[in-house]
Records
---
Amino acid sequence: MKLKILLSLSILLAAASSQAQDSLAIRKIYDEALVNGQAYDNLHYLCKNIGQRISGSANAQKAVDWSKKLMDSYGFDHVFLQEVMVPHWVRGDKEVAKIIDGSKEIPVPICALGMSVATPKEGVTAQVIEVQSLAELKTLGESAIKGKIVFFNRPFDPRFIETGRAYGAAGDQRFAGPSVAAKYGAVGAIVRSLTEIIDDYPHTGTTMNGDIKIPAAAISTKGANLLSEILKKSPGTKFYFKQNCEQLPDVLSYNVVAELKGSENPNKFITVGGHLDSWDLAEGASDDGTGVMQSLEVLRILKTVGYHPKNSIRAVFFMNEENGDKGGQKYAELAAKNKEEHIAAIETDEGGFTPRGFGFTGLSTAALKGVVQNWKPLLEPYDADKLVAGGGGTDIEPLKTAVPSIVLIGYLPDSQRYFDLHHTAKDVFENVNKRELELGSAAMASLIYLIDQHGF
Ligand SMILES: [Zn+2]
């Protein structure tokens, strides 16, 4: 009995001293991020000296070259490229649209959806049919849709607290809407921008082409509201739009990877990453310049504070998240081929806003309970202690199949402003806050430290 008490006492003491050690290590990580942070300056270079970097573009290649050089300059144990073939879609230079209400022509802001086809040279003019859902297309049927432009106008549901959920709930209109409308004989598709904010900026994003391809564009929320209002008064209203985007042959591109070698388990990996490619309307600052620069910063911080990880830690700049996810697929394929054991992968692709915490996929209920119990108190002083079930990201998702035991983790920053900027001309460096960005790098470096030290 006495021995038992002594044993549990010594376990308690050991746990307390390990907690104290962890607490100090995390304090050191935050101090480095907040006093000597480099993510903001690196992001400035990426946005202002390179700018937009849609997959397959010359700018995407510039971004790869610069990222590799930057990683080399930090003196990590290993910096390398992974070859990957990516689609090369180009927007073209003509995007115009107007509502034709009798003799009145009212211009509205649109942009082609990524991967869409062009309109004929003279553009498309047709009567508009407004719908709120894909199911409505089925109800309406071919007789009501054929020869028309389908206008998907279901707004973001403001009742969701996390805006990513509202995006998810409205997203089918953009991903699948145009190809489904094409099946019913539509000649074009116009999709309400996936955002809560009411303004004049259209939001691009990928649409999936079916067998029959029709031109598809996003309309600004203000434009969508106006079109809907006019349609109520004059159901015969027509819409005109013109775009000259095109799909070019696939291009050889790269994931860019930096690594700190594990001292105990060099073939076990913890990955943190975001995507280097961006949409072409702005600088891809929040989507996902912040994510890649934070991931790199995680490695820099750990190296600078003199942390020697037990497992190998990688920062991965994935290529082609936006319109193909080829980089994410390639990373997983190589992980399986090279028999790499992946413990966990964190994705940061929801903007560089104030950290809230992390979402976990692949942890048992008991393991998540342990994580909450042991790590929440350590992250709580930094307001990054929301540790919940469910999370991941497009780039790391394929790892789940390649390495079934992996834990996928989504970095959760505050989500309220992300969709104001997402996939628009407003996604520029000026809309990123230095401190918020740095707090995010520190939160991820801290979580990686904890995973590396304790596992799940
Ligand atoms: Zn993104």
Note: The mean pLDDT is 96.
---
Amino acid sequence: MSSNLHFEIPLYAIKEETRIPFNIYRKEEEFYSMIVEQNDIFPKKLASIISQSANKAMYIKNEDTKKYYSYLESVLGKITSDTFVSLKDKSKLIYDTSSKIVNDLFEKPESKEAIERSKKLVENTINIILSDDSSIRSMMEIGSHDYYTYTHSVDVAVFSIGFANYLNFSYEDISNIGNAAMMHDIGKSKIPQEIINKKGKLSDEEFEIMKTHPIHSYEILQFHNEKNEDILKAARNHHEKARGNGYPDKLTSKNTHTFAKIIAISDIFSALTTKRSYKDAFSSFEALRLMKTQMIDDIDKNLFIEFIKFMSKSSI
Ligand SMILES: [Fe+2]
Ligand SMILES: [Fe+2]
């Protein structure tokens, strides 16, 4: 069998003693040999043999990647709550599954299934962050340094959840902030691709269209019957600025929901610390300095001071 028909999977993605919906192979020299057959249980003994061997690589067929990702999502809760799995592997798993989930969400924003998967992902992310103080650092190391709308959504959710936890918010509030953060830019799915993917500066007309994305995010949430005002406002108002010169509602700081302000700070921080076609990624320190020197009039000062403290506690 030719190697391009195979896709490598990490051992941490497989939960022992669960039923595996695809064949798993090991590679010896040029040859792939099947070690677990579709619908068989992955034995605990096999997991320990592989974990102790020098070559830990396992493979599945390319055609099974869809099955693999839905398997990952089905065991995500079990793996993230497993005390024997390292924080690094848990963080990787969150990012491995999230890119698929958020990608599907952006392709089909009206899909109920995609929303449910996204909520489950937020719940698992919160569980990791709440269980270990150093999880934010681990996630920041794993998170993408290139900008894609779907990894950006997860980054913003991770920062917002971590920050809300740092501020001692209740579990319910942290969950609402996380879900709103995951959905904050979902409205971009309604903006023409040529505007989203444009390399150069947007024209005034294009920017006016771009500025409607928070309203679309709000409407998509409403389409899904979201009634929680905290979530709706957090998503709709993540581009408001403290002096009322943001969009879409031109709210001043006083009238902007705290959750929207938290997402706004996380959103700017995520954009600055990732690479774009027109700029390099800033380090956390440089990003915070830039926010302080050039954007301080746009964001909530008190929250920003707390955000600096939170980041200096969490980041590298
Ligand atoms: Fe946005
Ligand atoms: Fe954003």
Note: Residues 184-185, 213, 238-239 surround fe (ii) ion (ligand 1) (CB under 6 Å).
